[in-house]
Amino acid sequence: MKRHRSTLPRNGTRRPTARRTIAASVVGALAVTTIGLSAPVAAYAADVPAPSAHYDMTHSGTSLIDVSGNGRNATLTNLTDASFVDAGGDDVLRFKADGYASLPKGLVTGTDNNFTVEYTVSTQTSANHFGWVIGDGVGPWNTTQLGNHIFLSPRSSQGGYTNQVLSAIRVKSGTDNGESRLPAGGGLNPGFTTLTMVGSGNTLTLYRDGAVISTLAHTRAMSSIIPSGDVLGYLGRSLYQGDPLLRADVSDVKFWDVALTAEEVSSSMPTAAEKTAATSALLRGDVLATMLGANSSLDGVSSNLILPSTVNGVALSWASSAPSIVSTAGVVSRSIIENTPVTLTATTSLGALTFDVIVLAPSVSADLDAISLATRTTENLPLATKGAINGAAITWTSSDDALVTETDAAYAAPAVGAADPYAGGGIVTRPAYGEGDREVTLTARATLNGQTAERTFGVTVAEKGRWAPDAGYAAAYFKSDGDEKIYQAATSGNDFFTFSPVNGGNAVITSTADTKGLRDPYILRSKDGDKYYMVATDLCISCGTGWGPAQSEGSLKIEVWESTDLVDWKRTNGENTGITINQPAAGMTWAPEAYWDDELQSYVVFFASRLYSDATHTNSDKLYARMFYVLTRDFKTYTYPPASWQDTGYARIDSTVTKIGDYYYRFTKNEEGGAAGPLEAGKDIFLERSKVLTAPTTQSSWTADPNSTWQLTDTRMTSLETGQAGEGPEIIKLNEGDPNNAGDGYVFLVDNYSAGGYRAFLTTGAAIASSQQSDRLSQRAAWNVRPVGGLPASPRHGAFVSVTQSVLTAMHEWSGVKAVASTTSLSASGSTLTAEVEAADGGDVVGTVTFSGGSWSKTVDLEDASASVTAPAGVGSVTAHYDGYADGLVKTSTSAAVSIALDITATGTTRCVAGKVTEVLTVTNRDDVAATIVIAGAYGSKTVTVAAGKSASATFTTRLASIAADTVSITAQSADGRSHASTVTVAAAGCN
Fold first, then answer.
1. Where are the alpha helices (DSSP H) in 484-639?
2. pLDDT at 447 over 90
3. Domain segments of the chain: what residues?
4. What is the 3-state secondary structure (H, E, C) of 315-354?
5. How many other CB atoms are there within 10 angstroms of residue 4's CB atom?
6. What is the domain class of 279-359 according to CATH?
7. What does the pLDDT read at residue 4?
8. Which of 104, 151, 504, 614 is the most buried (most CB within 10 A)?
């Protein structure tokens, strides 16, 4: 901490020769550092030797400045100006597991075992992180890569040291790891605490705010620890491979190459008043950042404030000057008619903090301004019924209720499960594929405190996409804790167990935002089947985040994309960042998945999270993982806050859902180390069912009513078969034509995360639906894990989804969807022509067909892939050309030419003339052009010319008293080149 004390030299005190002192300096004097930067030379108490380095968190660029005047600047890695804050004039470095500082050589020399490190810190995070370490060589426990060292962890998560200071010295010898730990002596004091470690001979002494809390007698030598290179050690980085970087606030660090006395330890450290002032200033900033909630500043408060009960380990008690305007729970009134000032006071052990707030009078127009609707939609619309800013009541009307529904004034919430936040409004009926988009105008009417306003929104409702039968499968996954990117694979055809990587085996999506890690991708096909959504966990363990902080201070976001081809992915929010869906009191947002809810006409997005008492995350009870959900219609806007979905008092994660018949079936991982009520054996998958997707679960029960909650139907489903603990369950219905599908087939998959990834079980929908306590699916003879093979290589927690042939081809070629081939066939019945168009993939065909013959042509819309037309007179030969459609998904094609026949009919009769039979043949030209007609039978041939619309007869004398039946041929030709050929039978006859 920056301190200004008198610096008169001490007289008459003898110091050991190992001590190096610096002449006292005038406060505020400047010294030139080794990198040419000017830094203030700190002043030190007269009875304390000057340190070999002093870091009061003054910084410049990548340098943490040594203000002692010795020029021993530390080097910052991944820490920037944003990592430092001003705490009442004191700089504080906020380590957020995002960087560290490398200490230069010379701070401690190792010529003897005498040294001192003074470290002033505040943290609420318990983890296997180092505050500081002297030594170098990062490596696994008990290996030669791990260098000899001495370290201090300000708040440990190690057994026996949980939430206490952990410090140790390590010098490896033979097979002995060589680590000796100081006994646990307690944790940090509230606010900033100064931890001072003194090495004197073979004794290590640890002080907390000047009082001894632990000592250790050891036989290690500092000379075996001090590295030979330019780096002495680190601030904020552990040498144990896999340990996270530090999460803590650090205000002051000093090093001495001598052992301070107890009196010197107390004299050197920042005073209690200085630490209290810095704690209070930092506390004020942290409280402000927490309390704002959705408000941008305290000068313009319009939504509820978050008033934490603890921050940085300091308890806060709140009072309000106007509780009816802002309550002590942070509830902000929306009934005021003018802007109103309110003073909020937080009483702490460090004194009172006051915050002046101006609560804005609500404006009904602000709620209308906050509405954002897509200008073109393929999904139901989120027509909010409550204003996002001031909570105005909003109702919607539609210019075409058959296209987009209005708010239902009579809507009533169901007895079980989530209520429709849109009260029946916004349900879209898309035009059929080929009918084209349609326009609708929606009007929002907002009412608040007697104010009313309206706003109109024009929306284009997109026609449905092209349907084609599914012909394969796609997968998405990440690979490991060290490779947190999204990869994809696809089957070679319609066989689920033929997966291979796509995109050359390279990552499909690499995060450059938020935590810069992507895990647990899940792909959901849209309700209409023409789009895919992908959600993923925002988490990067390989970036230095430990599993403890990942659950206690994890991301509140999910990462979301959409695609029509599983190749080109775009963020649904149009920004290079995730979407915050979780609440400030949550510890993490893990393994998000989504499923369509038929009743709510929305997607339900569910995920695992810890939930703390408040946004400070300081309580340590009830921190088991549980499942929450939010609703969305467009994967851009979500309901808030998340609703509790599964909270049984036991840890649960990784739910996945499918619907079979009237029931939703939910596979979930039991995250408890042991049994969780009726769930046997921790770390395995169990199965439940319910008729209501959003029904809450408060206990696991075999006899629960699935009409109002979720009924347990199976447990411990995989480990007895696989021999491994499993997570990340997935369930997928097999395509028709898949050789693995004997009918009603499903594949169930479980991620054996410690043994190579996914394993598969084949089952059926009927088998899943019939599982019950007395006849469990997993205990039937047919429940067997398949041999390894056919799935993506070593996938971690991912997703599997059916795809059409177009998408499958696009994935393998890693290009956009290409048009499929088509075949056009043409037939004629007289002058009526019919064209039939078929796509190579068996999918929908829409668009137009153009019939052409000579100079004539006509374009006709396809209906059910067929088009008909009547050709005019004079057209003899016709072709049909499929012209395609605006989306270009099916290639054009042309039929073979078809000749159009003349429309000629004929009848044959007989009569008796002089006792002999005479045949009479009558031909009729029903066409609109004259025809020359040849009539030929057993008794002769005649040619007649028949005008359009006329008839002509020809007689043939047989000279016989009786004749057998006679087949007469009729052939005709017109001047325009058309022809006709047929036969007519003259019945047998006789004359008496």
1. 547-552
2. yes
3. 53-270, 279-359, 364-412+421-461, 470-812, 822-899, 904-990
4. ECEEEECCCCCECCCCCECCCCCCCEEEEEEEEECCEEEE
5. 10
6. mainly beta
7. 36
8. 151
